[in-house]
Amino acid sequence: MKRLALSMSTAVALASPAWADTSDLLIIGNSDPSVLQRLIGNGDLSDVQTAFQERGAEVSLATGADAESMRQAFRAFTDGLDATTDDVGIVLTGRFVSTIAGSYLLPAETSGPLSLAQVLTEGFALDSVYAVAAQYPGRALVVLGETETDETLPAGLSVALPLRDIPQGVTVAIGPAGDAARFVNELSDATGEDVLPLAQTAGLSLQGFVPRELPLFLGEDTALPQVEPDTQDQDRSAADTSAWEKALAADTEAAYETYLAAFPEGQNASDAQERLTAIQSEPFYREKQAEEDLALSRDSRREIQRDLSLLGYNTRGIDGIFGRGTRGAVTAWQNENEQGASGYLTSDQIARLDAQAERRAAELEEEARQRQAELERQDRTFWSETGAQGDEAGFRAYLKRFPDGIYAEEAQGQLDSIEEQRRAQAEDEDRLRWQEARDTDTEAGYRAYLAERPNGAFVEEARARIDYFNNNSEQIAVQPQAQAEEAALGLNEAARRLAEARLNELGLEPGAVDGTFDEDARRAIRRYQDARKLRVSGYLDQSTVVRLMADSILR
Questions:
Q1: Confidence check: pLDDT of 5 > 90
Q2: How far apart are CA 354 and CA 427, in angstroms?
Q3: Which partner for 296 in 300, 344, 412, 522 could form a disulfide, CB atoms 3.0-4.6 Å apart?
Q4: pLDDT at residue 383 above 70?
Q5: pLDDT for residue 231
Q6: Domain end (from 173, 193, 222)
Q7: CA–CA separation, 180 and 124 (whole Å)
């Protein structure tokens, strides 16, 4: 049984999943109807639906689909797949947005400023498509038609479609939505050898598995004519098959060269040439193939990246994508451990890497516990000599030394009360100038207040804030970058809750575990970073997240 899933966008009409014996089609359309009208003569794809039905296909059509309609149509499609399915085609056209967690097709009527939460909750995950297509290696076609947009996306979102995660054996054709629509319109009349040339003629780029021919959608009415071979042809074909099986079993440069020498125009010549080129261009071909055979999931790849980062190897991101950064980190680890620096991992190496990372996490956490205990001892001793005396000078001395200390909230609360009393006693002009300085909350603003009101009621408060800016200049300087790095992580509310819960387990008092990083949470993050000698910013970055996750494993 052949099944084709087409996703393009305009009202929803979902056919019942009564699958035919030739091809089953799922059409989800999220492109501009006017574009479709201009290119294929019909804005709601009904003509495309009819064309496939005339070939004996049962078609499910969803156009202008919202989030639920997309999921419902895809669910119906996948429920009908079974072991008799010959090949799979899935076409998605519309607006795509990518995050560090994957890429998503947006509903047709997405409105207002786009947010990460909106993409994750309403978008249709491209990973779901790949998961289905991966079950049909060599017999799966995915078409991605992109709709352009002028909207500026927030940090953590991108219009780029990463194509590094295409499963083995899956062919992906990608291009503008209009070109994809034209290709799908012509696909209804295609025979197997026409599929890829039609895609290229339509202006689509081919990625992933790109053979010379892609024999898909060969219904009974379009089957290629069968020619009865003579005995000599049968013998030659059998010899070709036998030689190819031997070449595959050896999987070496010499084996493929031997096959090509004997069968330069053989039925497997193009595959042999592709494999030969791959071996010659990849010095660690066998290692690469061995890692691919492990079929590592994206979560498994993220875990490997976390382990490498924990051991001090920079993977340039923890996204489940093994790019140059990760390959370089793997190579460096292999060199250090005398494992043969190929940049590709074996199952034994993954186990060893995980064990090393877990041991290192335990070591780092023990160091952090000792450092945190020493900091708390110093904190309590300093408080007993300053803030515990109950005067303004003591409170200010404590906060200058321990701005995020154990007693910081108590000291600040006492100073706020003192300030409030002074506000009540201060003259109107002095109170007004001080409020202006507090509103701007900059070193320059406080210096301006001191220059204008050298004997004002809030002189001590102004000097204390100036001292704060001087003593924390490095932390203040990195805040914009730290904010951007945290935003780039694309943390959803669940991830933020998890971070707060782990900080709470460590006794760092992040406040309510509600996914909102308020001042209590920021203070807890700074305490965590300080105890572990990480960059102290109060914002989550990759290094902090890696350590937080390691801490959770150890508890």
A1: no
A2: 66
A3: 300
A4: yes
A5: 61
A6: 222
A7: 18
Q: Which pLDDT score, from 0 to 100, does residue 379 have? A: 93
More confident residue, 61 or 86: 61
For residue 152, tell me if it sits in a domain. yes
Q: How far apart are CA 502 and CA 480, in angstroms?
A: 25
In 3-state terms, what secondary structure has residue 184?
helix
In the chain, the number of structural domains is: 4
Give CA–CA dist 254/247, Å, rounded: 9
Per-residue pLDDT, averaged over 478-488, amounts to 86
Q: Decide: helix, strand or coil at residue 105.
A: strand
Check whether residue 436 and residue 530 sit in a common domain: no
**415 contacts 395 by C-beta, under 8 angstroms:** yes
User: What pLDDT score was predicted for residue 521?
Assistant: 92
Give yes or no: residues 10 and 155 share one domain.
Answer: yes
- Structural domain boundaries enclosing 444: 386-471
Pair 63, 192 in one domain: yes
Determine the Cα–Cα distance for residues 247 and 269; give it in Å rounded to an integer: 11
Strand partners, 176: 146
The count of C-alpha atoms lying within 13 angstroms of the C-alpha of 217, restricted to the half-sphere facing its C-beta, is: 27
Residue 22: band (very low, low, confident or very high) from pLDDT cuts 50, 70, 90: very low
- CATH code, 74: 3.40.50
Answer yes or no: do 170 and 24 share one domain. Answer: yes
Split at pLDDT 50, 70, 90, the class of 20 is very low
What's the predicted TM-score (pTM) here? Answer: 0.43
Q: Show Cβ contacts of residue 311 under 8 Å, excluding neighbours closer than 6 positions.
A: 333, 353, 356, 357, 360
> 141, 128, 219: which is closest to 184 by C-alpha?
141
- Is a pLDDT exceeding 60 seen at residue 246? yes
| Ramachandran sector of residue 102 (left: φ over 0; alpha: ψ -120 to 50; beta: rest) | left
Same domain, 71 and 174: yes
CA distance 125 to 353: 31
Q: Retrieve residue 291's tokens.
A: 């890692």
Q: Are residues 154 and 23 part of one domain?
A: yes
Q: Note the pLDDT tens digit of each residue in 212-227.
A: 777 665 544 444 344 4
Whole-angstrom distance, CA of residue 435 vs CA of residue 413: 18
Last residue of a domain, one of 438, 454, 471: 471
Query: Which band of pLDDT confidence, cut at 50, 70 and 90, is reported for residue 9?
Result: very low
Q: Which residues contact 157 (CB under 8 A, 6 or more apart)?
A: 97, 98, 99, 114, 116, 119, 490
Report the pLDDT averaged over residues 140-158. Answer: 80
Q: Residue 156: its pLDDT value, please? A: 76
Closest CA to 95 of 71, 73, 65, 75: 65
Residue 76 is which amino acid? A
